[in-house]
Design goal:
The protein contains 13 helices and 13 strands. It is of the alpha/beta class. Residues 371-375 have low confidence and may be disordered. Residues 196, 259, 276, 280 line the site of zinc ion.
Length: 375
């Protein structure tokens, strides 16, 4: 993982994810969307290409994206998918294939994802499978996508029986992150993405955590230079994890901190009440509590995590009305179970974690107890 500065006036950050022949660059900057064509032309011949987006994002950024590509000699076509998690589906995938096949796009034509994690995951899987694989470019426009889903190569769609069940590891050839696109993101989405940023601080980077404690308000005010600094820090942290364990055979699962209970809370509230990050905030507080209950971390560590999430305006308690049996069943249904136990990510100190094997019943008991606590 190398961080270099480009010889331009803006403080562009360029990170390289080192994965042998699948290595790629992440360019992070305020305004980099306008450089998309030039950056892509450094990697492939200007040619036909396809931009996949949705109307919400397209309204703000599609014209600029197309103009940047055309200025560098590309001939882009646009594929628009309706906005929403329910469109991370086989039907959307088919509509992308239909469009590309009708337009006769060949195997060298890049697919560009312009949007949040839904568009990124869907487009990535289309790129992995169209004509057995075409170049894939990520232009993430949510904070969650900029710090998490656009890096690491997990792509896929939802199945009626569950989220993210069908997919492939497929690395992009380039990621272009323009933090100014966050200016139009609804605050609730920004805060939900911030949870993943806080997660990186908790599991890998105490300095980042302290920076967030100090500058939270500036970050929520979308200060561009702070956003560039923080997004780039998160991307290097994620890249380092992915470089060590690309296909989540072991170490990469530290990124699941807060997600075991978070996923259960999302599922038990029908994916309607909480955004993913909001449910993960509850899961992170729970993970800190479980860690403290096992004597792994101090009271102070748990309190700092709770305080920062609360300052961001997030709910931190397990919602009332969820039974311990429901939580146990939902947690056991999550994919991290091995031999009846769950490999649970605990925190030892800010920036330091360890895996513990925990039963779903233990998790459910403590989770419901917390609900009662907070009454
Ligand atoms: N591949 C991975 O490693 C990975 C990791 C985490 C999450 N995910 C996936 O990511 C998805 C969630 O991603 P998300 O949180 O970005 O949600 P999203 O893609 O649904 O975007 C959230 C909302 O913000 C809108 N939006 C996006 N950018 C905008 C902008 N700049 N201005 C205004 N509105 C904008 C979108 O249209 C949408 O309504 C889930 O499907 C999840 O499974 C994947
Ligand atoms: Zn997450």
């Amino acid at each position: 993982m190398a961080a270099t500065k480009l010889p331009v006036s803006r403080p562009t950050e360029v990170l390289t994810v080192e994965l042998g022949e699948r290595s790629y660059s992440i360019v992070i900057d305020a305004g980099s969307l306008d450089d998309l064509g030039t950056l892509l032309a450094e990697r492939c011949q200007p040619q036909r290409c396809a931009v996949v987006t949705n109307p919400t994002v397209g309204k703000h950024y599609l014209d600029r994206t197309l103009a940047a590509l055309q200025a560098a000699g590309f001939t882009p076509l646009t594929v628009e998918i309706p906005d929403g998690e329910q469109f991370k589906s086989f039907a959307s995938l088919t509509s992308i294939y239909d469009r590309l096949l009708t337009a006769k796009l060949d195997r060298s034509a890049p697919l560009i994802a312009l949007g949040g994690g839904v568009i990124g995951d869907l487009t990535g899987f289309a790129a992995a499978t169209y004509l057995r694989g075409v170049p894939f470019v990520q232009v993430p426009t949510t904070l969650l996508a900029q710090v998490d889903s656009s890096v690491g190569g997990k792509t896929g769609v939802n199945h009626p029986l569950g989220k993210n069940l069908i997919g492939a590891f497929y690395q992009p050839s380039l990621v272009v992150i323009d933090v100014t696109t966050l200016s139009t993101l609804p605050r609730r989405e920004l805060v939900a993405g911030l949870v993943e940023v806080i997660k990186y601080g908790v599991i890998l980077d105490a300095e980042l955590f302290a920076l967030l404690e100090r500058d939270l308000e500036r970050l929520l005010g979308r200060d561009e230079s702070l956003l560039t600094q923080i997004v780039s820090r998160c991307c290097s942290l994620k890249a380092a994890v992915v470089q060590r364990d690309e296909r989540e055979q072991d170490y990469r699962s530290i990124l699941n901190f807060g997600h075991t209970l978070g996923h259960a809370v999302e599922a038990l509230t029908d994916y309607k009440r909480y955004l993913h990050g909001e449910a993960v905030a509850i899961g992170m507080v729970f993970a800190a509590r479980l860690s403290r209950a096992r004597g792994l971390c101090s009271d102070e560590t748990e309190k700092r995590i709770v305080r920062l999430l609360e300052r961001a305006g997030l709910a931190v308690d397990v919602p009332h009305g969820l039974s311990s049996a429901d939580i146990a069943a939902a947690v056991a249904g999550d994919k991290k179970v091995s031999g009846g136990k769950i490999k649970f990510v605990c925190v030892e100190d800010l920036g330091r974690t360890r895996f513990e094997l925990v039963t779903s019943q233990e998790i459910a008991r403590l989770a419901v107890h917390r609900g009662a606590d907070s009454e």
